[in-house]
Amino acid sequence: MASAAEQLASNLNLGVLSKATELKKRLWFTLGALIVFRLGTYIPVPGVDAAVMGEILRQHGGGILGMFDMFTGGALGRMTVFALNIMPYISASIIIQLMTAAVPQLESLKKEGESGRKKLNQYTRYLTVVIALFQAWGISVGLEGMRGSFGPAVADPGMFFRVSCVITLTGGTLFLMWLGEQVTARGIGNGTSLIIFTGIVANLPSALATLLELGRTGALSTFFIIAFIFIAFAVIGLVVFVERAQRRIPVQYPKRQVGNRMFGGEATHLPLKLNTAGVIPPIFASSLLLLPATIAGFSTDAADDTWLTRITNALAHGQPLYMALYMALIIFFAFFYTAVVFNPTETADNLKKYNGFIPGIRPGQSTSDYFDRVLTRLTAVGAIYLCVVCMLPEILISNYGVPFYFGGTSLLIIVSVTMDTVAQVQSHLFAHQYEGLIKKARLGGRGSPRPR
User: Fold this and answer.
1) pLDDT class of 60 with cuts at 50, 70, 90
2) CATH of domain 28-203
3) Are the C-beta atoms of 445 and 266 separated by less than 8 Å?
4) Which residues contact 55 (CB under 8 A, 6 or more apart)?
5) Inter-residue contact 359 to 250 (CB < 8 Å)
6) Whether the Cβ atoms of residue 180 and residue 89 lie closer than 8 Å to each other
7) How confident is the model at residue 225 (pLDDT cuts 50, 70, 90)?
């Protein structure tokens, strides 16, 4: 009896250790892939003067280039092989997702299951190549016309530089796309999200050092810095709470009799997130508002162009018009993107197909209307939450001069990716525990005496 118990314990320990080893391998693979990404952000594009590019980006950092440089972890400011980062792949994924709701052929592929999902992923990769080629060509042409106090950004402009720059930047984006897919399959978490997360977090130490330096020199008071830290933790807690919040709609399945046995009768729920749109509304809103500042910054006759200068000044950070339009665009894209990713009519039809119903609501159109009402209220609350999170950094920057590098979009990405990664680690640990219990039950069943 004792030997059997010892053998059972040894088998369970070996199973847990093997699974823990697998989890360690996944974590180490993810860490190694992110280190490769960070090393690539320091490999320069041939023919580009990094000092001139850094100076130009500092001059136009308030535009859309500054936001993209934040997502790339400084790779755009140094003009490295990962200057485009994985943003073309993100843009392609969003475009394909939006087209799925508008194009019937793509919508039918989405309903085909695994095979349709693979085709949509392939279309996303093809569109990523097209977007990356277009953006890389625009960057190569723009670099040839840039000059700084140290001289031109490109020492030897021409067709050879353009072709080499396009190949280098596009190749870097495709490598990151492949690396993200490898992390998703062989590591922990979503590879694409982790790459963006790493690029944002890479500049966190310098941002904190700048904040503390302002406190040391007396530009910011000690009380304000302490209050700022408390506010930051409070906002992070709010983001975690809202991102985990969901409305659970009860769903009932009726009982049915097959022969002498009864099946069905389960009671479950349909979870609806409070912030269904995620970080898409702030990204779209900030991109649209930063376009005029970027165009004006690169305009050679911006000083003579009165109307462009007025628009740029009115849409500067902290201005009332900028904040009003920012909130309006966030609310618009929150409702728009939620309507794209969640179809109440399709969800109601699927429930009706499998004989599911919401207690007190008739199946069919009444269920669809109920989903629409609930989702509208949730989206309204989620849009207000996004406005609060995104407006707070703007107020701190404009009124108090805080170098708050992480805006609302960055904070949302950091918290969301962290929560998703932690949830995947916990799911792996729970799976290991369940497998250990199943093995224990099987071994116990084998050793039990058979009834006579």
Assistant:
1) low
2) 1.10.3370.10
3) no
4) 148, 149, 150
5) yes
6) yes
7) confident
Q: What are the residue ranges spanned by the domains of the chain?
A: 28-203
- Provide the pLDDT for residue 8: 43
Q: Residue 84: pLDDT band by 50, 70, 90 thresholds?
A: confident
Lowest mean pLDDT among 12-16, 198-202, 314-318, 383-387: 12-16
Question: Is the pTM here over 0.70, yes or no?
Answer: yes
